[in-house]
Amino acid sequence: MRIGEATGFQRGDLDTAEGVITLHHSKFGKSRLVPLHASALTALGSYAQMRDRLLPRPASTTFFVSIAGTRLSGADFGKTFRRLLQVTGVGAGAPHRPRVHDMRHSFAVHTLVRWYRGGEDVGALMPRLSTYLGHRDVCSTFWYLSAAPELLALAAGRLEADPEGRP
């Protein structure tokens, strides 16, 4: 999810029975479903219980709210993310600390690497990843991932093994 999608989805957009969040009118005016891992559902459920206990009547109907009960801003989200990185030490030795958006990119790259290593038909699966990420089209997803060296090496290796095939 993009930051604006995470801070803007409404309480009713989380379907715990199906394990999905419905994002309405996200970037490019599209709506989409975001499937969740069981661990994410558990964490969201715990957050919702605590939120409702501490703020029984928040000012906002968004799922995530500030301590004042209002919708979280992107700036607040980023500030909290940076504080969590500092407390946990994630990225402490790196030349640049991780950014929130890096998690989206890493997810996409790791998904493609897993597909390449598993011998999957990456071209056939790309529309799924594009839809999941909320990209306008598959070309946007390819562009988004073009700077990942490991991914480019895997694609090149597949092309060398089968020059007539698709990477």
Q: What does the model show?
A:
With 167 residues, this protein is mainly alpha-helical. It folds into 2 domains: 3-71, hpI Integrase, Chain A (Orthogonal Bundle), CATH 1.10.443; 100-161. Helix content is 53%, strand content 6%. It contains 7 helices and 3 strands. The protein has helices at 3-8, 38-54, 74-88, 100-117, 122-133, 138-144, 149-161; strands at 14-15, 20-23, 32-35. It has a 3-stranded antiparallel sheet, with no helix packed on it. Helix 4 (100-117) runs parallel beside helix 7.
Write the topology of this structure.
Elements: H1 3-8, E1 14-15, E2 20-23, E3 32-35, H2 38-54, H3 74-88, H4 100-117, H5 122-133, H6 138-144, H7 149-161
Antiparallel strand pairs: 1-2, 2-3
Helix pairs in contact: 4-7, 5-6
CATH architecture classification name of the largest domain: Orthogonal Bundle
Helical content stands at: 40-55%
Structural class: mainly alpha
Structural domains: how many: 2
Provide the spatial order of strands within the biggest beta sheet: 1-2-3
The DSSP helix count reads 7
| Largest sheet report | 3 strands, antiparallel
Give the number of DSSP strands. Answer: 3
Strand content: 5-15%
CATH domain fold name of the largest domain: hpI Integrase, Chain A
